[in-house]
Amino acid sequence: METQVKGGRSDELNLWFHEPTKPINLMNPIVLAYIGDAVYEVLVRQYLISLPNHKPNHLHKQATQFVSAKAQFLILEKWRPHLSEAEADVVRRGRNAKSGTMPKNADPAHYKQATSLECLVGYLYYGKQVGRLRELMAIAFGEMDDTPVEAGINEGES
């Protein structure tokens, strides 16, 4: 017999300990990107750990192939054809938000797109759209078209 837990089914991991103080569509995009960055990093790490024969000393190197600004830019490009109008609007809001900081080693255009990806992940996370987040992450990991994003990152690098 399945027991119900507050906020979801018992077979789903419920990580929403604290609800945001305002509706997600009114939240600052940088705040959504802040939580989205953390959620995205956890999802990438879970994916990498799920792969067979992974070596712990290589996990960080593998993770950077998904979490760098360039990687997130490429992933967002893979997501774009699949985004709803509302999701595309969240991405636009994230891209246009003023973060106030820019890493020295990141391309400004890639950094803005990475922030918009993180904004969307935060939006889906706080919107409890777990299924949609899984769909997009499957695209990121190449589970939908057999072209993982790390292949695109490694192209052109020597």
Automatic annotation (TrEMBL):
Signal peptide: none annotated. One of its GO terms (cellular component) is cytoplasm. It comes from the Bacteria. InterPro entries: Mini3_fam (IPR008226), RNase_III_dom (IPR000999), RNase_III_sf (IPR036389). The active site is at residue 37. Coiled coil: none annotated. Residues 11-151 form the RNase III domain. GO terms for molecular function: ribonuclease III activity; rRNA binding. Its cofactor is Mg(2+). The keyword Ubl conjugation does not apply. One of its GO terms (biological process) is rRNA processing. Its EC number is 3.1.26.-. It is an enzyme of class 3 (hydrolase). Keywords: Cytoplasm, Endonuclease, Hydrolase, Magnesium, Nuclease, Ribosome biogenesis, RNA-binding, rRNA processing, rRNA-binding. Homodimer. Involved in correct processing of both the 5' and 3' ends of 23S rRNA precursor. Processes 30S rRNA precursor transcript even in absence of ribonuclease 3 (Rnc); Rnc processes 30S rRNA into smaller rRNA precursors. Belongs to the MrnC RNase family. This is Mini-ribonuclease 3. It comes from Paenibacillus sacheonensis.
